[in-house]
Design brief:
Keywords: Iron, Iron-sulfur, Lyase, Metal-binding
Protein name: Aconitase iron-sulfur domain-containing protein
GO molecular function: iron-sulfur cluster binding; lyase activity; metal ion binding
Distance between the termini: 20 Å
Shape: globular
Strand content: 15-25%
InterPro entries: Acnase/IPM_dHydase_lsu_aba_1/3 (IPR015931), Acoase/IPM_deHydtase_lsu_aba (IPR001030), Aconitase/3IPM_dehydase_swvl (IPR015928), Aconitase_4Fe-4S_dom (IPR036008), AconitaseA/IPMdHydase_ssu_swvl (IPR000573), IPM_dehydratase_rel_enz (IPR050067)
Helix content: 25-40%
Number of helices: 23
Strand order of the largest sheet: 6-5-11-10-7-8-9
Structural class: alpha/beta
Number of strands: 18
Organism: Setomelanomma holmii
Radius of gyration: 25 Å
């Protein structure tokens, strides 16, 4: 919708600081670092609904590839996003890109000297070792040595969280371990440039010699769609980002690790600490291969695009009357009444909307037929019986950003979801699509809200009642819910939608245009930001 209106709305989140100190050992990359963070601090706790800013002297030892993996898996940590303070490594990485479009007009961000954080947590990189996150939780993290010897039915290196340098180091581990024997496994790089680099350096042949199949770049086993699915009861080791129940295939048991650990484990198909193989690698050769640039980054055609003006004044000229009317999908009543269906913590998007059914379902009603397809199979029957208001614990909607997780609840008749906390993207998608979601942390509510108890939600009065006790929720979300979602809001207000709705909440919520940040020069880089 931001592309249509040139505007967007969001709640400004808190920022927590993860301060890295110490130096990681040889062969330790971003995946093991973020697994250590998850193991120490757990998901959807300190980072929930916050931006995570990674700082500290330890950053000098983390390459941009390592930072990429850490930022990517900040979602599993519970953060809205993960950002790194730029330093010389960032500048070098961008400056050495071959394509001008990948290095021009770069702006480097840095916190103000007096920046304050909601919380600061220190992580000693010298304590990071090869880890495994055990099925089915990304934060159930143990050293590989504690998991060593566990039989594996398959290994997978790839998907978006596996950085280029991880695949390269994995190849060097395979090269050192080929004398130990090999088993067929599958590796799927995250992009075509990575495939090209592997071919040019000869490392693709090392993977093939070790029995790996190099698949088409993409998600592959990570989401268990198409032919790339694990079988029921199979124990597998993956270098991806999530290992929720049934994610990689119905009844499969997925564990997470770095590409290096997966490579070392592939020989005997048993979980293996890669340290003894890493110690045999020529580190100078490793650095050379890691810095090698593919011969041609122009693998994709130029794309012509048009940006919206983004100016508030322009949006004001587009009146709601200029937008075609569309039928409303909301009911005429602002009062929702139903019975509670109680769920637990960390209800994830894979459970709500299984990936293999998403590709065939193009409406709320169609995907709704597969809500909780593999677990909690009584859920749909209870919704039909009037248990249409979900009450859950912490981290509801964690996992991927798929909007189908909201669509499936709407499609099967769920009227409202109330939880102690929501994953950020799910909570963002819900009002946009018209699902009533309410965040309540008061323990008194959960004492009253037991399975089967009647509950009422009054959108007009901005509260809900259970056991005669009221609880309030946010006005902005309420407006989206009353209108039936962001599309219906656009049909009513046009391109002034966000401005109109925010201004109705009071003067403290009015939009402000961002000032243009200034680029910086040399080592004393400064960026002036105003929002």
């Amino acid at each position: 919708m931001a592309l249509v209106t040139g505007e967007i709305w969001f709640k400004i989140p808190e920022v927590i600081e993860i301060r890295f100190v110490g130096k990681p050992g040889a062969g330790i990359g971003g995946k093991d670092v973020i697994l250590y963070v998850l193991g120490q601090l757990k998901r959807n706790t300190v980072a929930a609904d916050s931006v995570v800013e990674y700082t500290g002297p330890g950053l000098r030892w983390l390459s941009c590839d390592a930072r990429f993996a850490i930022a990517n898996m900040t979602t599993e940590f519970g953060g809205i996003t993960g950002i790194f303070v730029s330093n010389s490594s960032t500048h070098t990485f961008i400056s050495t890109r071959k394509s001008p479009r990948n290095k021009s007009s770069s702006i480097y961000f840095r916190p103000d000297s007096d920046a304050t954080y909601a919380a600061t947590h220190e992580i000693d990189l010298s304590l990071v070792k090869p880890f495994i996150a055990k099925y089915p939780n990304p934060d159930d993290v143990v050293p590989v040595t504690d998991f060593a010897g566990t039989h594996l039915d398959g290994c997978f290196i790839g998907a978006c969280t596996t950085a280029e340098e991880d695949i390269i180091l994995g190849a060097l581990v395979l090269e050192q371990g080929l004398k130990m024997g090999k088993k067929p496994v599958i590796k799927t790089p995250g992009s075509r440039p990575i495939v090209k680099k592997l071919e040019e350096t000869g490392l693709a042949d090392v993977h093939r010699e070790a029995g790996f199949e190099i698949g088409t770049p993409g998600c592959s086993y990570c989401v268990g769609m198409g032919a790339d699915k694990a079988g029921e009861g199979e124990v597998r080791l993956y270098s991806q980002n999530r290992n929720f129940e049934n994610r990689m295939g119905r009844g499969s048991l997925g564990n997470l690790a770095s590409a290096v650990t997966v490579a070392a484990s592939s020989f005997d198909m048993r979980a293996t600490d890669p340290t003894h193989l890493i110690e045999k690698i020529d580190l100078e050769r490793w650095e050379s291969l890691r810095r090698h640039k593919a011969s041609d980054e122009s693998l994709f055609p130029s794309i012509a695009y048009v940006e919206p003006a983004g100016e508030l004044d322009d949006a004001e000229h587009v009146a709601a009357a200029e937008v075609d009317e569309a039928p409303s999908t909301t009911t005429s009543s602002s009062n929702i009444v139903g019975k509670i269906q109680k769920l637990g913590d960390m209800v994830n998007t894979d459970a709500l909307a299984t990936a293999e059914y998403i590709i065939h379902a193009h409406s709320n009603e169609a995907i709704g037929q597969h809500c909780f397809e593999y677990i909690n199979q009584d859920f749909r029957a209870k919704v039909k019986e009037g248990y249409n208001i979900v009450v859950a614990g912490k981290g509801f909607g964690c996992g991927s950003s798929r909007m189908e997780a909201v669509m499936t609840l709407l499609g099967y008749g769920v009227q409202c979801v109330i939880a102690e906390s929501f994953a950020f993207i799910f909570s963002r998608n819900s009002p946009s699509l018209g699902l009533v979601t309410i965040n309540i942390s008061d323990p008194a509510f959960y004492e009253l809200a037991i399975d089967g108890v009647e509950i009422s939600v009054d959108l007009e009065a901005n509260n809900l009642q259970v056991g005669g006790q009221p609880f309030a929720f946010s006005a902005m979300e309420r407006q989206f819910m009353e209108l039936g979602g962001i599309t219906q809001a656009f049909h009513k207000h046009g391109k002034t939608m966000f401005q109109t709705m925010v201004e109705s909440m009071g003067p403290t919520n009015v939009f402000r245009k961002p000032a243009k940040p200034t680029a910086f020069d040399g080592d004393n880089r400064k960026t002036q930001l105003a929002w």
